[in-house]
Every structure is written in structure tokens, then in C-alpha cells.
């Protein structure tokens, strides 16, 4: 029998529209923050000490905000919207200005993936104009690095994860596609190292733990698939989970899944259309069917 969900510490209300994405921003000595992106294009910055929104950012012309992250510190926010733009925000000293923007050309739901490569330098992977294309650029210069398009007909790219393994000179990227397959890309060589079928339906979300070499993905048929990478960077499917007691996992296809080791004072934000999925010291979950409500536990 599945264990019951933990009781919420409190509920945050007032975003005004359904929420698509959450991101914690915590800095020692400062009040913890929670960033939320709504379906009406707003980014709310919540103070978790006062449990109120400190400010509301508007930069996506009313288009849904689908992904949020911070660069180096919580004073620089990066957001992705359905207006086909990725925006950089300056939040230092109470500011809330868009300092730069990138046009992606993608009308899909694929979230960006961010990798820090050095002090003040990052790689950003995002879906491109072609439905199966992943583009990678360098930040803050916005210089193009490469474009990854599979030779096989896999359909639209649905989700991506970029990371730097210890055993490789360059970064690797995992991509989930419309045909239910996963592909592992060597970014430096612009080549597919391995490919495997994870689901009979489109892969809607994935996450990967580089230390454990294991990952999990969700799809629209309400199941979670677990898989791993072997020593030769080959994808190996392990199992499919359909929920405890023969049930189904509630809408994993719209969940933002998180893996990895949770350390003290590290908080995790997870949002699902119907359920949150994550073990951590702090969990923020959008209330199903609510208009901008979040519970933290």
C-alpha cells in the first residue's frame, strides 16, 4: 500500500491562474524564495518566511510560463514561455527587469535544460524550430554551440536533460521523443550514443541521476519507466511502474520529475498536474485544479 502524502506546512494562494512550474531559490542568511510560473505569463516570487508574494514579474506577454531556473544566484532568473522566448531577469536589489531574451522558435512544451560549465558560463539546451531539433547555446553570450537532429524519425522532442559526466570530456544530453523513445547524445560529437524505447506513448518528462547512472521517465499512458546507463553509455530499460496495488500513476506525463541526492538545506520543487512525486526535506506542489495554489511539506 502506498504511503499517504505528508500534511502540508502551509498553502500559498494568489497566483491567479493555474501553475505550470516551480523553482526554489535558497541562499544562506536570506529568506527562502519560491518562484512560480503561471498559465497567464506571470512569475510570482514568494517569500516562504512571510508566505506572501514579494513581487510579480511580467515578461512573456501573457503566454504561459513553462520553466524556471536561476543562474549562479537567485538574483538572476531565467524563464521559458509559450511565446517562444527565454528571458533573463535581473532581480538584484528589488529589480525585476528582463535584461536579455532568446527566441527559440519552438511552439512545443519541451522544457529547457541548463548546465553550468564554469564561473559565469552556462550551456542552455532548448527545442528548436524543427519539431525534432534540440539546439544548444552558450550563456550569457548566446553563441550557438550545436543543433541535434536524429536521423531516425522519432517525432517531436518532448523533454531533455543536459549534464557533464566525469567520464566524458564533453556534455551528454538525454532526449525523450514523441514515439516513446529515449536518445543519449554526445554533444561534442553531435552523435547519438544509444537509443531505447521506454514507452508506447510520447515521453512527456524525464530526469536522470548522473552519480547513480539511473533515470526515470513518464508518458501520457500514466506509467513511469526506470532505466540506466551501462559503462558503454548504453540505455538499459529496467522496469515500468503503474502505481501501487495495480493502479496507475496520476498523470506522470505532466509531472516535473526530480532525481538525485537531497542534502541538508537543499529544497526541491516539484509540480504535477495531479500529483507531486519526490522525497525531500521540502516539497512544493501545485494544487490540482486550483487557481495558483501551492502546498509545501
From TrEMBL:
Keywords: Repeat, WD repeat. Gene3D superfamilies: YVTN repeat-like/Quinoprotein amine dehydrogenase. Pfam families: WD40. It comes from Salmo trutta (Brown trout). The keyword Repeat applies. This is Guanine nucleotide binding protein (G protein), beta polypeptide 1-like. WD repeats lie at residues 196-237. InterPro entries: WD40/YVTN_repeat-like_dom_sf, WD40_repeat_dom_sf, WD40_rpt. The keyword Cell cycle does not apply.
